[in-house]
Amino acid sequence: MQEVESIINPTDKDFANVKGQIARELFTSDHADLLLKGEEWMKATATSCTVVGALIITIMFTAAFTVPGGYVQESGYPIFKDKESFTVFIVSDAISLFSSSTSVLMFLGILTSRYAEEDFLKSLPTKLIIGLSTLFFSIATMMVTFCAALMIIVDGKLQIIIPIVLVACIPVTFFMMLQFPLLVEIFVSTYGPGIFNKKLKRWY
User: Fold this and answer.
1) b/e map of 27-54 (b: 16 or more CB within 10 Å)?
2) How far apart are CA 180 and CA 186, in angstroms?
3) β-bridge mates for residue 71, sequence order
4) Which residues of the chain have pLDDT under 70?
5) pLDDT attached to residue 114
6) pTM listed for this prediction
């Protein structure tokens, strides 16, 4: 609506038609179905991603307390706490947990939004961008956590580690291929120059 408003004569914004509708009211009534479809799509996307994010939170929280190799019975410290791969495991686990938590919070913010016209301009797209970005990051670091745990368990046997690491990259790559174009499109439409060419001749 703001894009259309930017190219019309400002004096026409408050001019009523034969039905007594000003330009803003006419635009809203003509695009009510578009607003409803946008709300349904946002809710469906947020719901699906919230489920994925919640599963990652559960997995990463559990993994933090079931470290590979177990604990030393006398001291209670992890057996492999001095290995570099164990440090990678803990750090990536924490990052995955925090990023997935952020993602879930963003998607919950979308689900609880009022879905007014102005929310679709900045608020909702920004939450979706942050939610999808942090979800992707949490999936990537979850795979790193898995690979680090594998390295600890197999004690650096590359003939086992390398194939599994390559396979672990598949879900991350698929998610990026599916969601990255959507992220770019949302970002450009939200923070880009707009749907109209800025050199477009005004209507007044």
Assistant:
1) eeeeeeeeeeebbeebeebbeebbebbe
2) 10
3) 78
4) 1-32, 68-82, 156, 193-204
5) 83
6) 0.75
Domain residue ranges in the chain: 38-191
* C-alpha closest to that of 144 among 82, 201, 93: 93
Give the pair of three-digit tokens for residue 52: 């994925």
Round to whole Å and give the CA distance between 35 and 121: 12
Quote the tokens at residue 8: 């019309």
Q: What pLDDT score does 104 carry?
A: 95
Model pLDDT, residue 174? 84
Distance of alpha carbon 135 from alpha carbon 142, whole angstroms = 10
Q: Buried b / exposed e across 135-170, counting CB within 10 Å, b at 16+?
A: bbbbbbbbbbbbbbbbbbeeeeeeeebeeebeebee
Q: Return the residue matching tokens 């194939």.
A: 163
